[in-house]
Design brief:
With 846 residues, the protein is α/β, with parallel strands linked by helices. The protein has 19 helices and 32 strands. The strands form eight sheets. A six-stranded mixed beta sheet has the order 10-15-14-13-11-12, with helices on both faces. Strands 2-3-4-6-9 form a five-stranded parallel beta sheet. Strands 17-25-24-19-20 form a five-stranded mixed beta sheet, with no helix packed on it. Helix 4 crosses helix 5 and helix 12 packs across helix 16.
Amino acid sequence: MNSSLTKSFIMICCCAHLGLTQTVEDRITSILRQMTLAEKILQLHQEGGFNTATNTRLGIPGFVMSDGPHGVRDGMATSFPVGIGMASTWDTDLAQRVGFAMGQEFWSKGKHQALGPCLDIDRDPRNGRSPESGGEDPYLCGQITAAVVRGIQLTPTIATVKHYNANHREDGRMGNNITASQRVLHDDAGLAFRTAVQQGGALSVMNAYTLINNQKCAENFNLLTMILKTQWGFPYYVVSDWGSIWDTGRAVQAGCDICMGSTIYQDNLPTLVANGTVQESVIDQAVRRVLRTKILSGMLDYQPQGDPADVNSAAHQQLCLEAGRKSLVLLKNSDGILPLNASAVGKVALVGPNAAVAQTDGTGSSWVTPFYSISPKQGIESKIGAANVVYAKGCDINSTDTSGFASARSAALQANVVIFCGGLDGSQEGEGFDRVGGSIQLPGKQQDLINALGAANSNLVVVLYSGGICGINRSAASMKGLIYAFYPGQESGRAVADVLFGDYNPAGRLPVTYPKTDDQLPPWLRDDNLDTGYGRGYRWFDTKGFEPQYPFGFGLSYTTFSYSNMTVTPNSIDPGQLVHVSVDVTNTGSRTGEEVVQLYVSDTTAPVPMPQKQLKGFSRISFEPGQKKTVEFLLTADELYYYDETSSSYQVHPGQYAVRVGGSSASLPVSGAFQVLDGARKPDLLLLNVKMVPRYPKAGDNVMFLATVKNQGSKATIQGSPLKVLFSVNGQQIMWTDNYSDAIPAGGMALLCANGGPHSTNQWTMPVDSFNVVANVDPDNAIDECVEDNNSFSQRFGPTPIPPVNLAFRKTVTVSSVEKAGTEGTNVVDGDFSTRWSSAFSDPQS
């Protein structure tokens, strides 16, 4: 993993036209000048449950949205592992591939926009929306979810990160009032969102329902404008969670650009503008952000049609199985009870409320209806045959009924091994309600049944399914094996069986701390104060000195690993310079396996309160038996930032820092240190990618190039000092930008357009063949940076195949028959995916 990809960035667009000099912003201005006030407002609110309106006069499609943090919530689709399940993989490459598959399925169903992924921090396992969260650590959540965002947006689908910000409790979520300092909103609750909009490049952000410091998130100027759009530089649009706006004027002026789930914008905005309460310039800015997103995502130009065959394709099923396997966390393996030998295990007793069903999520808007799902019973029977499985439900998820204990105990007595599958389901956690019963403990009679099974047969393995972790303090001693399954998707039964019988060596790691009791958690309050118990999770446990059931980042393997030879270089730096960390990791066992190498930083001389340690790097790596690999990490200013409330800026303070590396937050066998001197503070500019407008150009089209640049330094760029980015195609310089000279703070970003090039006509057109674009930021070394050798980026592009011409598009059409309402001829050619025909020739663009 490249830790340097977590820094702030600037997005710079550079146009190369054939006889055309209009930039993206010029194009937006031209569209705005043609729009009436009513047409502008129409861009900012719903038209139907999950759509915004299409402007047919100006050819501006509306958004077609759908829920789906782990798959498309519209009909049936592939149900991938939930958010916390993806976090338990600790695998950014896998997360991006899953995001790409999800994006394909959204697009093939005609959706412009996925309402996900979710970046909520799982501050307490009793949070009903724990399944959608990215775990308890903002760095892990940000890295995994940014990768999902990148994957989704490799397709035409727009990713929407939610719920901004500090959303972590469902009970009273519409009116809970969270207290949070500016530092918490930047460093802790905000870090995952900053990572997703900067590193991930998310094109949309959804606000939370809660209040922050007495202001609704949807109406919070500090949250939406000062932090998100000004300090972080997010240039795209904010969409409200459904019905989350109370006051129209406050919301639109705070920076909530699109209102969904109510008619409050369409009802009130015309009057508020007419009486001067809201200036039309505010409406213009909101529409500008919406149009900017539509242009950069390709909505205002040609977009290729999605392939319906992508939905639940064989490739996506296999990817879902891979993700499910990688998400499983082996927590206990006493006496080496696992893996089981399929040919020698004999009779297996399969017991528990989740043994014969496939649990894929809690309840709520994240639910995905799969074409099929594999239960543990199906997966285990596929390994050893149904005749060798003795099944008994034993108990319910959450009831006092013990009538099934006798049959479960009888099954256990007949078997060589007992497998209990329990945990939670959609009746126990989900959107709109927190953990039923208000306790982390495994509900109902499940722990009593586990103890009864263990007394009957000591060879007991437990598999727990849930989003929020389930306490097992009363039953832990009865089990020899424990596997945690964070709703691993539609292939979960097959994935669990693969781990149980050793066809897959588990390497998932806990994305949350596993408490023993409720007493180990902070107070569970609706109106929470996030300034206390900084960070929660392992950071809370470190502060309190509590010993959890299992620590954050923990997970076992069927092999073992050792750590040695750690180096930290250099041992002293000026603020913003790079620190290289390397460590040797060896597979000391006899099986191929993966280790999740984790790096934690301790700020030992911080000027403000800090956690004892914080995750700042990780890498999931495969090792052959006996193999040794050197694992490397890069610490930049971004890993060391803290938000200084006095200067209202991100700072890297001089002082001593400790670095520790190992296999979990509680097992960090190698360590080192470095010092940040009180030296010169400078910006550091890093290019991440190059993009094009049109998003999907054809050979012969005039195109614009865009580059993403990050400032990962310790100081803002200098006001009045132009920032230059030079673009070359196949070695030929074609365009640059050098007209942006505002100060860009550390942690900030901006969207720039080109103004010059080596050819006076600024000509460049899309060739027939693929080509290579190289972008260089600050090519003349005019800006004094912390690091001078990371300013170049290369990316390959190719033209989009020319689509068939639609001779009827936006013309009067007569049809001989209508299958159903909404498929009339006028709708067939209106460019709106939601109204297209169901025939094979339904694409309005073809």
